[in-house]
Structures are given as C-alpha cells and as structure tokens.
Specification:
- The protein has a five-stranded mixed sheet, with helices on one face.
- The protein is built from three helices and five strands, in the order αβαββαββ.
- Helix 1 runs parallel beside helix 2 and helix 2 runs antiparallel to helix 3.
- It has a single domain, classed as Alpha-Beta Plaits (2-Layer Sandwich), CATH 3.30.70.
- The longest helix is centred in the N-terminal third of the chain and has 14 residues.
- About 30% of the residues lie in helices and about 30% in strands.
- With about 120 residues, the protein is α+β, with helices and mostly antiparallel strands.
- It is an enzyme of class 3 (hydrolase).
- This is acylphosphatase.
- Keywords: Hydrolase.
- Belongs to the acylphosphatase family.
C-alpha cells in the first residue's frame, strides 16, 4: 500500500469516527440498497461507509461498481441508515451527484458489514 493511500485511509477512519450517531432510534429495522454516483471512487468512500456502518452496528456490504459508482446494501435501524446516507452526501472529498435508494427485504441471518469485491 502506498504512503498516500495509508495516510488517506487513516484520515477516512478518523473522519468516520467523528460522525455523530443518532441517540434517538426508531426501532424500525430496514434494508436498503443505495447507489452513489459521482466522484465516489478513489476518495475513501467505501472505507468511510464501512467504518460508519460498523459503528452503527449495521449489516450488509459496500462495493465499487465498474461504472465508477459505489453500491451498498445497508440493514439496521432506519434512523442510522438515514444518518449514514446523509453523511456520505455531505463529504467534501467526494461528490455525490446522484443517489438511488431502494427498499429490500431484511436478511435475518446477516451478522456483519463487509467491503465486497
């Protein structure tokens, strides 16, 4: 790993750890597929989603798509997913130009959040 990528990743994790997690939760568990388009690759976008999702105890995955966008499936408290999506839209080092969100059925057996290849 290059020195630049290592420094960027350390900054991304530091930044993700500063995101305020809502203390009031809805109790409603949902699963959403979210696709972010724009300047979202090569800026630590997946690592940021991964770090925030783990802090919020969400399950699911995130991955880069060949068209330059980033796709994620997020499962957990609806208020936490909304907070994560809002955080990603406001990142200064990325530029989310378009976002699509679809509701999905919950996967009961899922226990973790991963970065998919």
């Amino acid at each position: 790993m290059s020195v630049f990528k290592k420094l960027r990743n350390e900054y991304v994790v530091w930044h993700a750890n500063r995101v305020k997690i809502p203390t009031v939760t809805s109790g409603i568990i949902v699963r959403k597929n979210v696709t972010f388009s724009g300047k979202v690759q090569k800026v630590g976008f997946r690592l940021e989603i991964y770090s925030i999702a783990r802090r919020m105890r969400l399950t699911g995955w995130v991955k880069n798509l060949k068209d330059g966008s980033v796709e994620a499936e997020l499962q957990g408290e609806e208020s936490h997913i909304d907070c994560l999506v809002k955080s990603m839209r406001s990142l200064k080092r990325a530029s989310v130009r378009k976002m699509t969100i679809m509701d999905l059925p919950i996967i009961e057996s899922e226990e973790s959040f991963t970065i998919a290849e």
